[in-house]
Amino acid sequence: MYFNFYTLDKNEGICCDHCGTYIRNVVEIHVDGFIYKVGLDCFRNLQKENKFGNIPNRVLNQYLKSIKEYNIGFEIWKSCETLEQ
Length: 85
Description:
The protein is of the alpha+beta class. The chain has helices at 40-48, 57-80; strands at residues 2-7, 14-15, 22-23, 25-31, 34-38. The strands form two sheets. It has a three-stranded antiparallel β-sheet with strand order 1-4-5. Strand 2 and strand 3 form a beta hairpin. The longest helix has 24 residues, at 57-80. It is globular, with a radius of gyration of 15 Å. The protein starts with a strand and ends in a 5-residue tail after the last helix.
């Protein structure tokens, strides 16, 4: 099992595979050749329900923290983006 994270543009969101909500911040959960795409809230809920088996909560919490830091950095980068002259 491994995870991947990405953010989609405003008009390119998808539906969460867990709850069906429109999401832009996507966590992909790769398990046995299947890809399960969920939002951050559902990822946290699945973590609380202990759906990730033998992966310790501290590892998942570190992963969520890195996602948050990535989002902050990405938003800063987008706000500084300028057109080439």
